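Justification of computing resources. Each target in the renewal requires a structure prediction run like the one illustrated here; the chain below, 417 residues long, is used simply to show the kind of job we budget for.
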Amino acid sequence: MKRPEIHPISLPRVPHYEMTKTEGGAPLYTLHNSTQGVVRVSFVFRAGTSYQSAPFSASTVVNTLTEGTLNLSGEQIAEGLDFVGSYYDANIDRDWAVVTFCSLGKFVEPTLDIAEEVILRPEFPAREIASYCAKRKEQLHIQRSKPEQLSRELFGKSLFGENHPYGITSSEEAYDDITPDLLRDFYNAHYNAANAFAVICGDFDQKVVERVVAILNGLPAGEEASREIPPLESVPFAKQRLEGAVQSSVKIGIPLFPRSHPDFIPLQVLATAMGGYFGSRLMQNLREEHGYTYGAYAAMINLDQSGYFVMSAEVAAEHTDEAIAEMFSELDRLSLEPIAEEELEIVRKIIVGDVMRIFDGPFGAADVTIENIQNGERNDYTEHFMARVRSITPAELQAVAQRYLQKNRSTVTIIGA
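Resulting structure tokens:
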């Protein structure tokens, strides 16, 4: 039996989109993929949580768009989508809100009928809003009894500052102050053509394009959303005790810059080497050598106005200090010695494999397109990214680590014993 030949991983071809300019100004990006008879339409708005003036208003708006519109009740919306087997999803982060509809090609017209109501004519009915807020208040109260939620909130507040839009947290009682009028004010200010774009992906025809263009043209012109971004007020160390905790949730972060910075890609490579796969340095050290944790990770996080390098682990409470020391030891090692070429080649393959996995499906290209547009890039950025990863050298990575990944620039947060 002859062993199959081993070939280098070939980089996936990133599809390029077509852009349609609309009368209202909100652009439409289209990506044809006829391999499956499905269509996905995503409406993207610059309406993330960092734009809200009242706590929880941004997330409540995007999560209650389907609770009732001018012409349809929430029940009618749910039944209408369910009847044709269509999928609806709403997501929000600090910068953006994304509303997505997905359907079989033969049912895209009735799905877009509902999408038009949801995007252009939401009503935010009082009874449904009160019910949603009561549920979310209780859910948040329960979540804040768990280390994971507390750790995320303490880390954001410590890394950026408790008054920074990327770090601020609010009491769950703030849900009591949410009103339909408050939601309508936020919707009117942010869900407009100046803050929107849409992406269609799948097996669609010109009629679908024209229909989505009509929805975008129905948005009011509006003004581009703005917000005040204060200077960072990072703190070097923050700890919150959790009674009865047998583990500590540890996060170490270094505030840096958004994806547009030329050193963002090298830092992504370093983060992958540090904790982006099972055989990473943190996993070998904290799990395999010392048994402090079942898992640890590192990542380079991109935000619209910032970015940060983070290492995280859930460690046995009695070994919290030792685990933190080992995490900093691994961070120092990135600056003190170049990564071996053999390890770097594994990291390259991990990163390229992750990109290939994203494109393993009809809608991966749409997700990449949305992210690229949000960052002011075209889809050839992904090709540039993969080429940069393949060509980067150990010496370049060591120099980047020496510039940015220093202990005296870090924030450490601990939730637990």
